UniProtKB/TrEMBL annotation:
It catalyses: L-histidine = trans-urocanate + NH4(+). This is Histidine ammonia-lyase. The modification 2,3-didehydroalanine (Ser) is found at residue 142. One of its GO terms (biological process) is L-histidine catabolic process to glutamate and formamide. HAMAP family: His_ammonia_lyase (MF_00229). Transmembrane segments: none annotated.
Length: 511
């Protein structure tokens, strides 16, 4: 059971939610705040004085007054008219995050929504009823209106849900959770729709994947250093202390630890080679910068996950309803853009190491890492696959936040595009997972070919894990299944968690 403390969700809790379905509960200390805000909205609505979203239209229609006896219809119509999402449905981990983030935001007591509505979301979540939420249709401002509308329609008995992977109607989902369709009170539809929860959920899902990729890449990069008979001198702490970047210093330390005690490294201490290519030598500088970006983005995303981002906001003590712009997801757009660039660079650097290892003139290993080259092509085309995905990521990593198209008849004239910025992180991460999977296979093959010299004890554990799943490459064979197995090991954190210094469950927190 995960207890939600509004305003105090931790990344560790959100990782658990992303990873698997656990039941949730709401800290009971939030209940008085929720009730106070709902009562305030009831009082304001009864007075009949204009209050945006309570008794007015929306967006450009904000000056249109709505009579008291039509306020329930106003909220229902808002939900239905805004449910215009398209594209593939969000995956269950993202839907879980959307629901928890919305519950936590509403429970802060500034949205004016009744506990009955929040409790319905909690019951749906705990019953494993996942709203079908199309992944496209939000520009990341005025809130993630379309995605959140599809979540909200379930509460009034409209739309579809997924239960144990099976798609069915909202009414079946409500019944599963022991609920009946709700009648929305003033402002409740708007409170459900407005907010950055879809953008933030996508960003969290991407962040967690990229953390795993980062940890995996430090292991894969260390393997590549040994497979290429590279030097460990570039990881000397004195070099990195002189520059001063925390990420660079920490990453260099991990490379030293991973490569410590390698027989392969000791065997070429007196070789004539002066310097290694940048893809080996500059790993602390590149991966350290990536580490710093991940840490920075995670802090921004954690703040947003705990925010109240709907509009207008209710301040019960003074019976004020204030219109603002917390729904504008620019912080998430920037954080997601930075993560996209960082993740793309993980793949770009790994692709260069693959290219180095299969090139006998650089690695000193057999061409394409297979004996009897010519009749065997080895990893020649596996590298082509890695190159194609690294190139694809260059386009995917183009900043989304620099774009904006006005909507709502120019009332909403600048938007963040945060939803797409965060959504495409998964596609980038999927590509990087394949690239790293290929590198793991290539580097492990290179380590094999360095026999009788052995790699370090830490890296030997990694090669043993790989060899339990994928055999040494003797002759050409159907290679796609090997790559898929390696990709799965990357995505599941098998490689990352083989070395306890970088564990994804800790969130890569700095010591």
């Amino acid at each position: 059971m995960i207890e939600i403390h509004p305003g105090n969700l931790s990344l560790a809790q959100l990782r658990r939610i992303n990873l698997s379905h656990e039941e949730i509960s709401l800290d009971t200390s939030a209940l008085p705040k929720i009730a106070k805000a709902a009562d305030a909205i009831g009082t304001i609505a009864a007075k009949g004085e204009p209050a945006y979203g309570v008794n007015t239209g929306f967006g450009r229609l904000a000056t249109t007054h709505i009579d008291y006896d039509r306020l329930e219809l106003l909220q229902e119509n808002l939900v239905l008219s805004h449910a215009v999402g398209v594209g593939l449905p969000m995956e269950d981990p993202v839907v879980r995050l959307v629901m928890v983030l919305k519950i936590a935001s509403l429970a802060r007591g500034h949205s004016g929504i009744r506990f009955e509505v929040i409790d319905a979301l909690i019951k749906l979540y705990n019953a494993g009823v996942m709203p079908i939420i199309p992944s496209k249709g939000s520009v990341g401002a005025s809130g993630d209106l379309a995605p959140l509308a599809h979540m909200a329609t379930i509460l009034i008995g409209v739309g579809e849900v997924r239960i144990d992977g099976v798609r069915t109607s909202a009414l079946v989902g409500l019944n599963r959770a022991g609920l009946k369709p709700l009648k929305l009170a003033p402002k409740e539809g708007l409170a459900l729709l407005n907010g950055t929860q879809a953008s933030t959920a996508f960003a969290l899902h991407g962040l967690f994947s990229i953390e795993t990729l980062f940890a995996t890449a430090t292991v894969a990069g260390s393997l590549a250093v040994d497979a290429a008979a590279g030097s460990t001198v570039p990881f000397d702490d004195r070099i990195h202390q002189l520059r001063g970047h925390i990420g660079q210093i920490e990453v260099a330390k991990k490379y030293r630890e991973l490569l410590s005690g390698s027989e392969i490294n000791f065997s070429h201490q007196d070789c004539a080679k002066v310097q290694d290519p940048y893809s080996l030598r500059c790993q602390p500088q590149v991966m350290g910068a990536i580490f710093d970006q991940i840490i920075h983005a995670s802090k921004i995303i954690e703040i947003e996950a705990n925010s109240v981002s709907d509009n207008p906001l209710v301040f019960p003590d003074t019976l004020e309803v204030l219109s603002g712009g917390n729904f504008h997801a620019e912080p998430i757009a920037f954080a997601a853009d930075n993560l996209a660039i960082a993740a793309s660079e993980i793949g770009a650097l790994a692709e260069r190491r693959i290219a180095l290892l299969i090139d006998s003139s650089l690695s000193g290993l057999p061409p394409f890492l297979v004996r009897e080259g010519g009749v065997n092509s080895g990893f020649m085309i596996a590298h082509v696959t890695a190159a194609s995905l690294a190139s694809e990521n260059k386009s995917l990593a183009h900043p989304a936040s620099v774009d904006s198209l006005p909507t709502s008849a120019n009332q909403e004239d600048h938007v963040s595009m945060a939803t797409f910025a965060a959504r495409r992180l998964s596609e980038i991460a999927n590509n990087v997972a394949v690239i790293l999977g290929i590198e793991i296979l290539v580097a492990t093959q290179g380590i094999d070919l360095r026999a009788p010299h052995k790699t370090s004890n830490a890296l030997a554990k990694v090669t043993e894990i790989v060899r339990r799943k994928v055999a040494h490459y003797e002759i050409d064979h159907y290679l796609a299944p090997d790559i898929d197995v390696a990709r799965q090991m990357v995505e599941e954190g098998v490689i990352a968690n083989s070395y306890p210094g970088w564990t994804t469950t800790s969130g890569l927190d700095l010591p």
